Amino acid sequence: MLKILSNPSQIVTVDTYGKNFKRGNEQNDLNVLTGFSLVIEDDIIKDIVPNSNVNNIECDEIININNKIVLPGLVECHTHTAFSGSRADEFRDKLKGISYEEIAMHGGGINKTVNAVRNSSTNELIEIISPRINYFISQGVTTLEIKSGYGLNFENEIKLLKVINYLNEKYPIDIIPSFLGAHTIPLEYENNRKSYLNLLIDELLPYISHHNLAKYCDGFCEKTAFSVNELDELFSNAKALGLNLKVHTDQFNSLGGIDLALKFNAVSVDHLEVVNDKDIKKLGSSDIVCVLLPGVSFFLNHKYAPARKLVENNAIIALSTDFNPGSSNICNLNLIMSIAAIKMEMTIEETISAVTINAAKAIGLEKERGSIEIGKKADLAIFDTKDYSDIVYNIGKNLNNMTIKNGEIIYLSELN
Ligand code: NIG
Ligand code: FE
Q1: Which residue out of 76, 78, 80 has the highest number of ligand 1 atoms within 8 Å of its CB and is therefore the one to mutate?
Q2: What CATH number does the domain located at 75-361 have?
Q3: Residue boundaries of the structural domains of the chain
Q4: pTM across the whole model
Q5: To the nearest whole number, what is the mean pLDDT of the chain?
Q6: CB within 5 A of ion ligand 2: which residues?
Q7: Which of 53, 269, 372, 385 lies 20 to 30 Å (CA to CA) from residue 90?
Q8: Contact call for residues 78 and 270 (beta carbons, < 8 A)
Q9: How far apart are CA 363 and CA 402, in angstroms?
């Protein structure tokens, strides 16, 4: 099946010239084409041709993009979408000045959502999570990472991972499951951290690896969560079982999570609000992706990650919502791009690289997705505007008109 997307105003290719990620200043180069059309064969980007050539190509279908713009499908690389319940009461407390860490230390925070998830059946979770996935798809998201981390015992972590895997089968987009059993210590293990760690290492990891329930093992390196030594032990075991690694680190405290991530060759370090200069240098000379989550800083009224310094030091930056009920109840990736531009002084081009190719690298899919390059999968988002700047300039507004996954239209805006 040969399809042509004809007459776009721009094709924002985010071309990496075969490198499959962008670092430092490269993140400013989007390689925007005008006067070209896109040829798709089955699920693959086959060619990019001048508009004048379109009529000479024998094809099954021409989709007239009519002056809209084509981007790579957006990649949402860090979410906690698999949760139930609400933490609006904590949000009220936060507005009064009580900190996220204080709330967590008094039994609220992550453990409150754990309670809600343990009380939700598989079917209830599927019903709650499904519209969230549809909402991401409507924004042009074609790949979505979802973490477990609100079950925190054998039964419920597996329940969440099975739900995430089921949703991956059910929805046309790729949903990448990450195991976040090391999100925090559940209340019943408060005085017995070692037993909880043993549960993760001796029971959960082997089961998850054997049943192929997660691609990544993630861990939260923080005073209210896990120490470097604890995560070191977890990650050694995860790695031995073939799981790749991700680390939530340097959100409130810089405890050594970055050295840990580098030691284990983790695919990403996520958060980095308080990352220090020494670690920035190390990140800039490594291939690890720095996943910045400015929605958290906005939601918690907290420090923003030093995006400019990271770019100056040649780091690879991705952006994500971190969608979760406690520190970023934001599932709008477009809003995150605008917050990143305004509050972290990222350029519009950098924000686009950060939600496409670099986000794909943060979940190990950069060779097949995340940019419009011949031979890659045809994952595309068509935005209803003539110039890509409008995506970041129209704050919180969804300009996505059409989402294409593996060459098929999976979403069409009613405003079409
Ligand atoms: O990425 N940092 C740890 N975990 C989440 C917050 C989860 C929650 O508060 O429920 C985050 O910010
Ligand atoms: Fe997170």
Answers
A1: 80
A2: 3.20.20.140
A3: 2-72+371-412, 75-361
A4: 0.98
A5: 97
A6: 322
A7: 269
A8: yes
A9: 23
- Angle between the N-to-C axes of helices 122-138 and 154-170, in degrees from 0 to 180, rounded to the nearest 10: 40
What pLDDT is attached to residue 414? 82
**Does the CB atom of residue 401 touch ligand 1 within 6 A?**
no
Measured CA to CA in angstroms, residue 222 lies from 13, 198, 237, 253 at distances of 38, 19, 20, 6
pLDDT tier, 416 (very low <50, low <70, confident <90, very high otherwise): low
Q: DSSP label at 226?
A: B
Using CA atoms, how far apart are residues 26 and 99, in angstroms rounded to an integer? Answer: 37
Give the side-chain half-sphere CA count within 13 A for 349. Answer: 16
Q: Is 57 helix (H, G, I), strand (E, B) or coil?
A: coil
> Alpha-carbon distance 28 to 323, whole Å?
26
| C-alpha–C-alpha distance, residues 31 and 44, integer Å | 19
**2-72+371-412 and 75-361 have identical folds:** no
With 80 as the cut, is the pLDDT of residue 395 above it? yes
**Nearest residue by C-alpha to atom 12 in ligand 1:** 327
Distance of alpha carbon 170 from alpha carbon 125, whole angstroms:
14
Per residue in 48-84, pLDDT tens?
999 999 999 999 999 999 999 999 999 999 999 999 9
Q: How far is CA 34 from each of CA 8, 38, 319, 416, rounded to the nearest angstrom?
A: 8, 11, 26, 22
Residue 415's pLDDT band (cuts 50, 70, 90): low
- Residue to mutate, 322, 323, 328, 330, ligand 1, most ligand atoms under 8 Å from C-beta: 322
Mean pLDDT along residues 12-23: 97
Please state the rounded mean pLDDT for residues 383-388. 98
- Give the strand pairing for 61-64 and 32-33: unpaired
- Residue 410 C-alpha to ligand 2 middle, in angstroms? 27
The neighbour count for residue 294, using CB atoms within 10 Å, is 29
- Spatial distance between the Cα atoms of 255 and 246, rounded to a whole number of angstroms: 16
